[in-house]
Amino acid sequence: MQRVLVVEDSKVVQQVLRHLSAHYLDVAVDFAWSLAEAKEFIAKHHYTLALVDLTLPDAMNGEVVKYTLDQAIPTVVLTSTIDEYKRQQILELGVVDYVIKDNRDSYHYAVKLVAQLLRNQGCKALIADDSRLSRLLIKQMLEKQLFDVQDAHDGEQALKILKNDPEIKLLLTDYAMPTMDGFELVKAVRNFRGRDDLAIIGLSGAGKHGLSARFIKFGANDFLTKPFMNEEFHCRVLQTMEQLSLIADIKESAFRDDLTNLYNRRYFYQFAEKRLKETSRNNSLALLDIDFFKAINDKFGHEAGDQALKQVASLLRSSFKDFIVARVGGEEFAIVLTDIDLDQAYQLLEAFRVRLSKYDFVINGDTFAITVSIGLTKFQNVTLTSAMRLADKALYQAKDQSRDCVVRQN
Length: 410
Fold this sequence. Notes:
The protein is of the alpha/beta class. 48% of the residues lie in helices and 21% in strands.
């Protein structure tokens, strides 16, 4: 589990950081006022990242930075002032980056930097460079940003790695390499990985004019000239990955239901069948419908109905987190249960039905009981449309019987 430690002695600054962290960081965040308090936190918890003030009342000379780094915690430094000597000192310590505290926007940048670093954790990156020393230096810098790094000694090896591992999200490639140069590699990669799926940064120390433009025209997202400053490297990589994350967020939002944040009908029909082709043959499809939902709207109003839908969606999300769950109609939901047989799917759905029937829903401050009817069918050697038709038939049988039950259609 990811966890962040923030060490800042200014009440005003800490308040700002608390507010921004609550908005941007979806992880546990601990706030310490001093080095002594930071040590207490570190003794209790494992931290993914630390954001620390360079000067504290009990650590006037950056001792807190040295301590967090000694504890193998990647660290971003906050500092009120900076000169070339202090800059070199900070970088030589091995921090990820530093942020100058001069206005509110700097705190905004610092927290967004932490958010992107957290997204980087476990994200795969690949370095393609024929220089062993260059690969080693770049790998060390990327690992500071929490990437899982692989390397290749030429373009052909890099291309093979990328074809075999679609989880790689960042490629840094040198221009001058034997067998396949950086331009050829980028062109080949863009035949099967788009800009919104894989970020590419071109590298070169050749000093030729137009290299950066040619890299970008061939499909790179950005370009760096060797030798580059640590700060420039970190900024370019972080900004490139932030753009990739923003694109992913936009695409994800297009597939989400605005009210419940479950997948929407569009996603379900476009991608459910594709996902199923990648799994085993033991798959099931369930359709759930809230019983007497119209009565909730009529009695309490449509806003209350929305509250009920959100709470049902929350229970579905927690109960079926390993499966595809979507809102496919007003009060109707669909679940694709992959890699389990029909009996196992029935048991899971029956357990959910019981859990939901006993749950105290809160509508306008009052508790309320809700039940669901569920239709279940095999999803095997049939199209999604055919499976939906069978599940819908089972759902109507559940409605006709007594509601609040699960009916399966083989």
